[in-house]
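Hi support team,

I submitted a single chain yesterday and got back a structure, but I'm not sure I'm reading the token output correctly. Could someone confirm the output below corresponds to the sequence I sent? I've pasted both exactly as they appear in my results page.

Thanks,
R.
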Amino acid sequence: MLELGEASFSAHTRLGALLSESKADKVFLFGREIEAAASYMTGKAKPFFYTDNIDKLSAALESFLQDGDLVLLKGSRGCALERLTEMLTASSSAASSAAQKEISVAEAKNVS
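Hi R., thanks for writing in. Yes, this is the structure output for that exact sequence:
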């Protein structure tokens, strides 16, 4: 929503209100513009994390997420959230690789 100009603050505040009422277990907010949403969410029941540092966001996500969790990344192109892709898919890839190895071992045992 970097493109919103003067409407950015009110749009991000409204987003904070919507996120506060969402069914998400936790909300992770990233970037300077989204600070209005974080300000709105402060003191509300919904757990959230806010930063404008991509490394802190990555670390927070990595410590919170578990295999099988659903993650929605939404941000302006300027946020370059694709920088999180490797971290978000690493554990999934490792789990998939381990499962593939287990299948191969089971198939080998069935062949003998």
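A quick pointer for reading it: Strands lie at 27-30, 48-51. Let us know if anything else looks off.

Best,
Support desk
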